[in-house]
Amino acid sequence: MTAGGTPTPDMTLALLREGLDRAIAASRARLEAAGRGAVPPDFELPGPSALPVLAARFNLLPEEVELVTLAAGVERDPEAGALDVATAAALWGPVTWDMLCPEAPLRRWRLVELTGTGPLHRRGLRLDERVLHFLLGTSYLDARLEGMVVRALPVPPEGARAGAFVEAIRAAWTGTPALPVLLLGGPDAAAKRGLAAAALDGLGVPLLRMAAGDIPEDWAQRAALAVFLDRELALSGSAVLIEAEDGQGASAARFADGLTGPTLLSATEPPVPERAPRRRLELAPPEAAERAALWQAALARDGSALPEEACQRLATQFALDPGGIGAAVARAGSAAPGELWHAARLEARSALDGLADRIDSSAGWDDLILPPEQTEMLRDLAEHLHNAWRVNGDWGWAARGARGLGVAALFAGPSGTGKTLAAEVIAGALGLDLYRIDLSQVVSKYIGETEKNLARIFGAAERSGAILLFDEADALFGKRSEVKDSHDRYANVEVSYLLQRMEAYRGLAVLTTNQRAALDRAFLRRLRYVLSFPFPDAAARAAIWARIFPAETPLDGLDPQALARLPVAGGAIRSIALNASYLAARGPGPVTMAHVERAARREYAKMEKPFTGAEQGVFR
User: Where in this chain does the record put each AAA+ ATPase domain (predicted)?
Assistant: First the structure.
């Protein structure tokens, strides 16, 4: 079976059907002559029809083409008698059994179906409906593939990287007797799909696509799907793109091995099928300079432009493809840098939304109550990220390699001292999303799975430009153990892999821990910023109490200086203040010291701490 363009480019439907009807008449004349015992005339295909195309694409013998013709006649003429195996045998003799072997083309590609039950010579023959419509010049997707296979729409290439990818696909399938399976690598599945469709569109080959997750597990169903899809590729002159997500590579490769038509496999790291020949093509994400040019080009189409510095910051922070950039420009509705930044942030966040929890916060610098040294370091960290585009790009550091350009920060301190709040403040100051990583979903007891989970997270984060928060990260970032068995060795591999990804990640990864002493010193040396969050002293606690209630909350007689005598951290103060507000709302009335005392007693009970006379004295 071979690929090709449209089956009848120069034929009208009327000519096609007229040619088919003449072929049917000629076959019936041969059949009648055989029935009379006369020598049948030779079968020839009079006039234009789709029968020669069908024969070429499925390697049919003349006798097989004629059997298809007779079966089409049954469908075309309501008064025609049924076609059965015995009738066919009367015309072709013993060769009939070879034509109807399950592995012969007619049965292998389900062009002709056997009907009825009983001995083979008593069974009927029927032309498949999709094949009949092909002969009649009607093009449509086989109903058995509906919902599983769809047409991929071409996306014109923008930029040198996309243009080179399109040309590489065309070159791979031009002037080659056997079309290689194309393995499309790279993280951007949508871009690969659109560019592959554009490349094949230039060759006159439509592109169908399917998700590897829809491939049946049952071998019989999988084999049947492969036959119908392969047949559809031949009938429509199409190619198929199988898109595999993480963990689906093996299934996609097995399915590709069952096809013979033009096939492309798409995955971040494409699986390698046994089918040959094959060729790998990589669509690397566009670099910041190319993204900047794409931003300006998208704005120029709307008659707008963006200052160079604002454009460079956008291009560096958000690794959007041309489609994402165009969508962001449309979403923004103007060329205002702030609007474009927000639109790019919304467009890019989808990559991480299914892998981590997004934290929405309106916290600002005034909400942080920390010693001046820690506050200054946090502001330095925010400025570091704000100016990364200039240092890494304009000043040439990125050209020396990605290692070490990432910004990894460790926030260490007791629970409730403001570590997560500090990450929220930095994200808000920079206009970036903050995602909390659930370590219980990352760390796996199975060897190699933790690295795969981390790779998915960091890969998605690269596109979104978000800040990653590994909260309570002790479980993953603890001391690398002395190697005593295979599990120890692979635990060390996990930590080493994490260090590598953190150093290469161009955004900010914030790690929080309650036990800094438990961290490996070698690990600490790979971190750009290490901040200690101390337990707040009385002055800091008074400042927290003075700011913890929103301005809209009615208060009566609260004394921040007195409340500061409660030796609790900021997180506990917030919990007490919130619970006191709910207690007061029953009144309804203002929050009083009595409400705070009741809430404090409950917080102490939760922390399993005694509410001693010193604490009681705060409220007397």
Answer: 405-533
